[in-house]
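[job 4471] stage=fold_predict status=RUNNING
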Amino acid sequence: MRQVNWTNRLSSVTIALLIFTASFMGYLMVVEDPTEKKELFSEEEPNFVSSPGHPVFSQYITSDNCVYCYEYGSPAHHSIKTQHPDDFVYISYQSVSYGDTDTARAGNTPGYNWPWSTSGAPDSYWGDRLDERASGCGSNTCYDSMFSSGGGMSSSTTSQYSLSASVTGTGSMLDVTIEVEYLGTGTAPSDMYLYAAMTEELCNSYSYSDGSRGHNCWKSWLMSDGEYRTQSGGSGSGFQSVTLSGNSASYSWSVPSGQVNGGTDNALVVAALMTGAPSTGASNEHVLTATDSNMGPLIDVGITDFSADNQNGNLGFVSGDYLNLNVEITNFGVESYNDGGQISVYELSGLDEVYVGGGPVNNMASGATQSITVQFDSSHIDAYASGTTTFRARLSSLTADRDSSNNYADVNALHDMPPVANQPTAVASVSIDRGDTIQFESTALSNDLVDDMTTMIPTIHYALSGTGFWDDAWISSSELVGSGGNARFLHTIDAPLNADVGQYDIRIRWADSGGQQGDWLLAEGAFTLRNGLPIVLNGDSPQYAGMPTVKVETEERISAIGLVYDAETPLSLLTIDSNSPEFIDWDSSTLELVVNFDEVVRDSQGNPIPQGIFVSIDDGDDINSGMMMFNVIENGAPRWAPIPSQSFDEGGSASISLTSFLSDTDDSGNPIPTSGLTLELISNSDESLVEASISGHSLSVSSLDDDSTGMVELEIRASDGSKTSDTTIVFHVLNVNDAPRMDMEGIEEFTVEMGERITLELLHRITDIDDPDEEIWPSVSTFVPGAVQFNQITGIMNMEWSESGTEIVTITLEDRHGDVSAYMITVTVIDNLPMFWDTDLLASFDTTDYGTNPTVMVENIGPLELSDIRVVWSVCNSITGICHSSGVSHNLGPFIVNPSSGDGLGIGDYVTLSVSAEDQDGFDRLTEIQYKIFATEPVGSEPETEENQEANTIDDSSKWFSTGLMMIGILLSAALVLALAITLRRQRFESETAVDYSSIADHEPPSYSQPASTPDSIPPPPPMVPPLPPEGLPPGWTMEQWHYYGEEYLRRRQ
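[job 4471] inference complete, writing structure tokens
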């Protein structure tokens, strides 16, 4: 046998196994390599979010098992904090489950008011406000817009406060210090609180479901007076109130270092200064500023003022002026700034910035300012209407500046342009007489943003058209009137009496506040100056002296003063002439007319009447004419002196003594006393306007109503017994504003039911004698709020009351002058109106005997027309005091009163009736007093004999006992018979398909089986009567048949 070399074979096998194993391991390494190799990912470009330039505070709700929290919400918060570590402050309220977020672990402990959502994450509230909420998150930038917009906080508020926080470790304690400083002006506000919490910068104590950890997780509240509150212990019932005495304050706490997993280096204090208690669910800005212990002191240098001033002091500038560009910067930080920087000033030309000048930023203490001035030559600027040149100041190369929003500022320098005049307009007519006044209003366009109507001055001239001789001597005033967009200049031109007549031109130009003058604006033919015509006065003219009186056949000299008038020409320069034979001459030296009347013209009664002379008057430029009236009297007749026009207010009266206007002579012309003269009213030109009367020598005139106005001429005759003389007196009835009025005819009083609405249309009843009715403002009032409603547009007034009583509605009318009148409407609100027995209604009973069922008929004997009638009857017993039966009839009858006992009326019973209905006016009527009638003993009952009385006495006990047993038997038998009858009746009705009521009506009512009774028993009455149909009883029916079959009849009709 061949010997096997196991050693060699083993070595070969071993080598083969080693080679196979190595190959297999290599294969495994090749296969597993892709799973173990970490793929290099491309680094995402950071998305930088812009800062609002001030601290922003967020309260972030998160949970361990919230996927969106650890994938998006927490990274999004941390991203903003990383990009803006000094502008973003946030705290994480991390619960175990997003289904319950308001847990003690998340911060909902005693001493803290939790206003936030109780379930759902991620969620965040900004500025400690419910209205600044960002719920849910699906990206790492989901909170960027909330942060950039300020998160419910503003720079104007946060810039007034400085807040810093620090934490240090001392043994087993963490020492916290928070300092507050007020940087604003004036006194620091009160009612401030310090929201403060200890957090873990990296949440070592809690981890998300994927093993990652968030930041700034709440661990404890820092409460008032150095106390703190954790999820499981501590003390404190509220946050620290802040009082800034001396504009600053400092507060400190010592908390166990065991609160923070990670020690002092992982401890982060989050603080926010608030007005009012923190976290109250407010929706207004109340977080003044916020910080955490990782934020450094505030570094902020900003531009506080930038102006462009013209060196010549004008508000605007013209090309060639030099401007001073003034820049002021301030160190808003809490510490000195010594890190340099640059102040630059630019002119903005389109989209380009053209450097003008600048300077370095100096070392500045906190609150210090620095100013520089750069001179700018505007020679190259082309000014244009309403134009501006914009300059920009910019701070650059600052170190660690916290707020970039105040590092630049723009200012506009206004272009100053000459003003442009607008066409002046006349206030009234453009044609006036010499000696009159004309006014023009004028405005101008400033043509720039520098001036307005208050800073521009007009220059206005006039000239006779075509002459070019401009002057301003007639311009008495030019004043600014109105304001705002209604501002304008009012120019008054007083034309003298000696001015040339004709058309006049006007020119106007304006000068602005910088002294620039605009071009002249010419208005040709702006106004016309006319010659003022001389006129003959009459009673309508206030200058009228009254009708002159002359004697017949006598050459009289009459003064022209008060008879002729010329606004321009003195009377002495007038030429007066006439073709009338009564006109003799005009004496301009004495201003007298010489006339002579040949006769006295009399009326049909022989009384003298006024006579006229038609005269022409020449003022040298124009001629006018008119009728001059004279009172021509006989020699020796009474004479009237001119009586001036009289006046009084509408609705008033006036009285005048005429004695002083009278004179009298005898036939020789010698004066005699006027006491012998009698006066008489001859005519009244408008008897619908005034009423006049004469008593002695006194004339009394009074208005006939309170509204009429106008003029009236009264002709008065004076008589000496033989001769008379007449004169005319003019009275003016002047208008006085009257309050509006309302026609109350037919609406002064109303009577209505409760709940009934009254609708009145008032507009056609309201009038104003002086002004348009549309300008009347009516209003209504009453004592019951809401009972009266008035529509100002339609003029409809609705009235309705829910309770009875007397109501007063006051209607007030007011016109545009403030005059008021009031009218009252009396409304009587009622519930029911009464009806009375014997005057309105009369009840009749066919019987009231014991044991009967009376048939009742109620008769309407009054003037009322009734409908919806309801008669309620009842039967009561005066002995027991119990009402045992009642019923209703829906008409006045006849109807039957059926006592429920079935035995008719009993001893002590009485019947009452009450009637309710609606009358012809729609009012509810009710008998307030019940009709009452007692049951009576039947007439004809014979008294019992002595033998009967004795027998009754002897058998009294046995009789009552027998009667009782008999009555029980009767009642049981009646119940049995009644039940059997009802059963048979129902079977019969169920088998019938139709009923012939005429056949029913032809038969007598069926007789009812009754149990045996004593001779004295009374049969039971028929059942209670059903209501009759509207047309009454069916044809051929009797009332007794209706009692039994009426209910079935009504049922079949349905």
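[job 4471] summary: Residues 1-10, 26-46, 941-965, 987-1023 have pLDDT under 50 and may be disordered.
[job 4471] exit 0
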